[in-house]
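JOB MANIFEST
job_type = single_chain_structure
chain_count = 1
residues = 335
[input]
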Amino acid sequence: MANITQTTVADGVKTQYERRLLVRAVPRLVHGRWGIPARLNKYGSLEWRKYGALSAITAALTEGTTPSEQATPSLTLVTATPLFYGAWIGYTDEIDMTVFDPLVSEVSGILGEQAGLSVDTLIRNTLTAGATKDYSGNQTARNALQTPAHDVTYADFVKQVAALEAANAMTVDGDSYICIMHSYTWASLMLDPTFVNLFIEGEGGKALRDGFVGRVMRCNIYVTSNGRSYADGGANSTEDIYSMLFIAGESYGVTGMAGIAPKMVDTAGVSGKNLTGAGKRASPVELIMKGLGSAGADDPLNQRGTIAWKTGFDTDLLNAAWCRDLEHVNVFSAD
């Protein structure tokens, strides 16, 4: 007797499918939050200006003698010229008829995430390239770092905060400096008993994009998997080197997309409402959708559409002494 098997009715055997898409692994995007924001305008570029401070007067006035005039304070000028960035993905008319997932909607979200990651990475690279450099374990160069001898410690952390204090760096929001570190660096510091004893844990339930984990001394600490690293950059060409950024107020500026922080979009409307709904609109990135047939004669059968993002953006370091980059090894550097 011939039995009915999965082979004989292959087309009738289906895999059970749950229409619930899994969450994507999106990094916390934190590097652009504390820059001085500036909006794009029709001039194509913009500038920040900073006057230098005057030194202390330590000589007493001589009776009847007018002292010499003070020199004019120095002026530092930083000019930003925003560039445009973007990407797109095409789709066909058959997608709607054959794909079970809401693909067009999902691709829009994926492109939006790419836009955020792109800008966060550009800001990160600018800050680490121009900040004042230091190295863990009292080393003087990236290629001198070895693990475990020079693994990052609480002492390295304290030196960076002290250097900002000595530079008379402004705090952010009036009371704190900002520290941004890679997740692997966070793991290393949590193995340091002195760091752990002084650490004040942050509130739970924060949004994924927040990344805030707690506070040590006057530093609010943010953790992200998008922290900068240098593969095999250490002394033996096998250790991965990581950056830890220490940011003070007014140390860098951002224009364009990064000039609109998430909290501005979420709560800057009337009575704290968001700005992304009807009425006034603040869009940090432009999402561009071209429907099927929008190409006119170039798409005579209405077969092709596209989804894209575009943004204008630039970032500049305004005060290198108020932004420090501690290059270091950690417990994952040799993996």
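[summary]
Residues 103-130 form the longest helix (28 residues).
The two ends are 59 Å apart (CA to CA).
exit_status = 0
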